[in-house]
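HUMAN: Ready with one sample?

ASSISTANT:
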Amino acid sequence: CIEATVPCFRGDIHREIDLVEEVARMQGYDDLPVHETVPVRLAAPQPRVTGKRAVNDLLTGEGFIETVSHTLVNLELATPFLPPRTDLLRLEDEGDFGDSMLRPSLLGSLLRVRRTNRDRGASNLRLYEIGSAFEIEGDAHRETNRVGLLMDVDEDADGLRPLRGIVEALVDRLAGHGTTVEFRPNDRCPWYAPGAT
């Protein structure tokens, strides 16, 4: 370990590499050995990247189409998906379109994409998005990374079964084989039925 004190008149030395360059200059660049090759070691992918790739691979294999939508939504799309005891994050400047809320859920954005596709005649769609959702609880601001799924169901009698199978497959892929998922009925949100947590 080498400790160095930089004189106050050398304001150009800020980092460790600046000091290394100074030593090399004092020694003389001609005296430094030059290697013909540079060893490179590849770093393993970060867990977040590996997880996103696993989600993408599974959902694409199940016929889902990835969407990328804006994090700003209007009040109509934000309010139904606001968790209990939380508030919306609102921008002061609404801009031209009135989308001034940071979305509390990806579902509002997915529904907007679904409506656009329906208006153009598309049916039997399976959509997903991986993105951020925002909320305020008390004085705390939270941003969480989420996976949102939206799929057309062929038979109303199927209820949540097709979507449940996708969720279980995702959990199995991300948390490991044998991980169990418990689905509990949830009627707190009147805009979907049946619903589950």
